[in-house]
Design a protein that fits this description.
46% helix; globular; five-stranded mixed beta sheet; 213 residues; binds cobalt (II) ion; Beta-carbonic Anhydrase, Chain A; 14% strand; alpha/beta
Length: 213
């Protein structure tokens, strides 16, 4: 029987011990509640762990991850996370973080099928189609995938700004900024894309909801 999973339990014991060693009150404080300032929407890829790559602690970041960090308005899982983060936790920053070398983005560029995920990745095919003139001109496949990764993040930032949740928060005076980042698997560094979105950065009228009050 494969006992490889036991290393996770052992790892957990070491984690708990070392945290308690550094700060005996660490878990007691965390158990009182959370007040994270950040919502992280990232890729499920095992190489992009949200806390680890940002050097943040337990309690600092509310996290949602899915394949290729896509924001879909009919995804009740993601939308529940966003609404709770914005309205209850009152996060100040929402970060969409993609990563170079993303298998999901690469799959969306191709025609192979992988199962249910094909339907999910259709959203990224739409991003490709929207920017096909730029993308088709990039001959190198890796570079084209990198650019699509960036464009996908930008699109998902816009998708967040198109939600009534975020628009309502802005309308109510909450200062929420939405950031688009890309993480480099090969150097561990995050690049900020030029797509910071806040209430001063209007989206097209068709996506703007009328607010009651
Ligand atoms: Co990925």
């Amino acid at each position: 029987m494969d006992k490889a999973y036991l290393k996770l339990i052992e790892g957990n014991r070491r984690f708990a011990l070392s945290k308690k060693f550094d700060d005996p009150e660490f878990f007691k404080k965390l158990s009182l509640g959370q007040k994270p300032e950040y919502l992280w929407i990232g890729c499920s890829d095992s190489r992009v762990p949200a806390n680890e790559v940002t050097n943040t602690e337990s309690g600092e970041m509310f996290v949602h991850r899915n394949i290729a960090n896509v924001v879909v308005h009919t995804d009740f899982n993601l939308m529940s996370v966003v609404e709770y983060a914005v309205n209850v936790l009152e996060v100040k920053h929402i970060i969409v973080c993609g990563h170079y070398g993303c298998g999901g983005v690469r799959a969306a560029m191709g025609t192979s099928t992988f199962g249910l995920v094909d339907n999910w990745l259709r959203n990224i095919k739409d991003v490709y189609f929207k920017h096909r003139l730029e993308l088709d001109n990039i001959e190198d496949t890796d570079k084209r995938a990198d650019r699509l990764t960036e464009l996908n993040v930008i699109e998902q930032v816009r998708n967040l700004a198109k939600t009534k949740i975020v628009q309502g928060a802005w309308h109510g005076g909450k200062k929420i900024e939405i950031h688009g980042w890309v993480y480099g698997l090969n150097n561990g560094l995050i690049t900020e894309l030029n797509v910071l979105h806040d209430e001063t950065d209007d989206i097209e009228p068709i996506y703007r909801y009328k607010m009651d009050k």
